[in-house]
Please model this.
Amino acid sequence: DAGVTQSPTHLIKTRGQQVTLRCSPISGHKSVSWYQQVLGQGPQFIFQYYEKEERGRGNFPDRFSARQFPNYSSELNVNALLLGDSALYLCASSLGGVNEQFFGPGTRLTVL
Amino acid sequence: AQTVTQSQPEMSVQEAETVTLSCTYDTSESDYYLFWYKQPPSRQMILVIRQEAYKQQNATENRFSVNFQKAAKSFSLKISDSQLGDAAMYFCAYRSQNSGGSNYKLTFGKGTLLTVNP
Model:
């Protein structure tokens, strides 16, 4: 079975632009979570979605938004990019609840 | 809010030797999960081992074992017979076990970079 997939692998944007990152969960998984990992730090929670509803939001500005589609794939949008948004963005999927979260390989975003 | 602290930014071990990575956490909850994740240079975060707080027995997975001290809020990872493939960044993580559809976010420490010397 395919694991969690994310696209694109790498992305370079300039300040002020907008970006959309995509995540496809493991088949059968209904929960998707997004994390931001700045170089040299541990991942920080951004959003969790379960059954297309937002179930949690981390301490990130409103420039960050996400949604989950009927097929349980998800998009993370970041508007008005700042240099500090440069990071590895990780997506994790799970069956939901206390079940294990499986991570994708991440999208490396560089903001110039 | 829960916090996770990994006080060792870097550790090194000789191949075939044993190494212990430290983690402490702070929480007011009584039910929760603790995890160790491995992140090699390929960036894929891989679950190494998990511990349920209500279980007194320490979790083990082959060469990996934990020392869970609930009262001390300590959760260390022991890697026995270290192999070159164990070289990676290791993250300790916490997750609440509240029910009712609440979010089950993971709270990570800053990580420990493990080097395995041949």
User: Anything to note?
Assistant: Chain B has no helices and twelve strands. Chain B touches chain A at residues 4, 33, 37, 42-47, 50, 91, 93, 95, 97, 99, 101-111 (CB under 8 Å).
